[in-house]
Every structure is written in C-alpha cells, then in structure tokens.
Design goal:
Radius of gyration: 23 Å
Distance between the termini: 50 Å
Strand content: under 5%
Order of helices and strands: HHHHHH
Helix content: 55-70%
Number of strands: 0
C-alpha cells in the first residue's frame, strides 16, 4: 500500500527532480511495473537529460514496488482540497476592494474585433 504522506516525504522532495519522477512514471506507463535506476536512465538519456544519481536513487527507493495509480489518486485528493480553497479567497478580495466597480468596468470594456482569416498559401488540414 502506498504511503499516505508520499508527497510530503522530505527524503524524496529533498533530492528528487521532476524529470526523474516523470521518467519513472513513463517507464511504468510503458509496462515496467518496477523500473530500476538503469531503466530510468535510459529514458532520460533518450532526451539528453542530465541524470542526478542521488535524485534518481531517492525516486526509485520511494516509488519502487508501489502502485502509482493509488499514489496519484491520494495526491489528487490532497491537491483538490487546496485548489478549491485558494481561488475562492483570491477572487473575493479584489471584488471587495473594488467596491462593486468591477461590474461597471466590465460593461464598459469593448469586445475585440474578430480577426479576418488570411490566406497563407497553405492549409493546415491538407
């Protein structure tokens, strides 16, 4: 079972880089249920990415043998609770500061004229 505190794990976050996590996940999506460091290095080498061995070791140690779908689902739940709260508070502050002037300003804003299509000499759909 995945650890519930995976995304807050200081050992992973202190050393991991997103390219290592992404390459590990690509290997899993490609059918390798438990990629080794060498497997991840092959993926990173294919795009000429520099490998940080300490970061890669941390990723492989944390994710090895775990079900990534469950880890992603758990992280998504955590992110959903954060994402819902932040925009609501952020949107309310400017509206309150404007004192209701925002709707009047929105009515005065002129809609931009639609641009005419130009013939560039080729079609994107041919």
């Amino acid at each position: 079972a995945p650890r519930a505190d995976f995304f807050s794990s200081s050992s992973l976050l202190a050393h991991a880089k997103m390219k290592h996590v992404a390459a590990y996940m690509l290997a899993v999506l490609g059918g390798n249920a438990s990629p080794s460091a060498a497997d991840v290095k092959k993926i990173l080498a294919a795009v000429d990415a520099k490998v940080d061995d300490a970061a890669l070791a941390a990723v492989v140690a944390e994710l090895g043998g775990k079900n990534l779908e469950e880890i992603i689902a758990e992280g998504t739940k955590k992110m959903a609770s954060v994402a819902v709260a932040a925009p609501a508070g952020a949107a309310a502050a400017p509206a309150a500061a404007a004192g209701g002037a925002a709707p009047a300003a929105a009515k005065k804003a002129k809609e931009p004229e639609p641009e005419e299509e130009e013939d560039m000499g080729f079609s994107l759909f041919d």
